[in-house]
Amino acid sequence: MQLYSFCILVLGVPLVSLSDPAQCSCEDKANTCTVIAGSNGLPGTPGSHGLPGRDGKQGPQGEQGEQGLRGTQGPPGKVGPPGCKGDQGERGQKGDCEGRELELLKTQISGLQAELKALQLTTSKTYKAILGHIFPNSTTAEGKIFAINGAEGDYETSKATCYNLGGQVASPRSAEENIATLKLAAKLGRHVYLGMNDQETEGIFKHLNGDTMKYSNWAPKEPNGEQEDCIEMYMDGKWNDIACSNVRLIMCEF
Ligand SMILES: [Ca+2]
Ligand SMILES: [Ca+2]
């Protein structure tokens, strides 16, 4: 009925003509008006389209569609905070590692000892060769080398001479060493100084390294000198204490 009134206002046609409902057809669905005839009997001009109608009621919800394909994996997320420190595990059993290291050390030490021994042998041979050049007259006894070169001096000179060569004044500690000393001195037929003395305590003879003298081969009634603190060897191998200022053949031991 409202749409019918709207037709009257828009077209401006006589009320009589419009009063005939047969000549104006209005359809709710199309929302349009169609003029059939004018006042002069001729067909009128077509009317313009009316405004669009209101939206209809919302239809029922459709069925759920099929699940789509799985998308690609996204980038990794940020690093999370560190976790809590775990409990200490039980102590494991002792392995063979320590044993192997010990064996390795033993092998290395054994190798070093062999090298040292070879080096000492080489050094000893070299040293003896040099010594033989310095002291043409030498002999060995119980691992020692006794040597003379004919030089003489007082006790202090004898000590310094032998010390500078890496040895010391001959100091027999056994009968064998005493015999070796005697034989060497006999080549030059001169008395030699021995290394022992009682300079520190009268009557108590000691070796140069401080050892108390245990072996001795004193001549009868010797030692007999409070002012005689050094020792010479006679040509029979016996010993006599003498003043250290005396000059005697220098014999060194190495
Ligand atoms: Ca003395
Ligand atoms: Ca004496």
Account of the 3D structure:
- The chain is of the alpha+beta class and 254 residues long.
- Among the domains are: 2-35, no CATH class; 135-253, Mannose-Binding Protein A, subunit A (Mannose-Binding Protein A, Chain A).
- Helices cover 30% and strands 20% of the residues.
- The protein is built from 5 helices and 10 strands, in the order ααββαββαβαβββββ.
- A 4-stranded antiparallel sheet has the order 3-4-10-5, sandwiched between helices. The chain has a 4-stranded antiparallel sheet with strand order 7-6-8-9, with helices on one face.
- The radius of gyration is 68 Å and the shape is rod-shaped.
- It starts with a helix and ends with a strand.
- Residues 1-39 have low confidence and may be disordered.
- It binds calcium ion (2 copies).
- Residues 222-225, 228, 240-242 line the site of one calcium ion.
- One calcium ion (CA) binds at residues 198, 202, 223, 225-226, 228-229, 241.
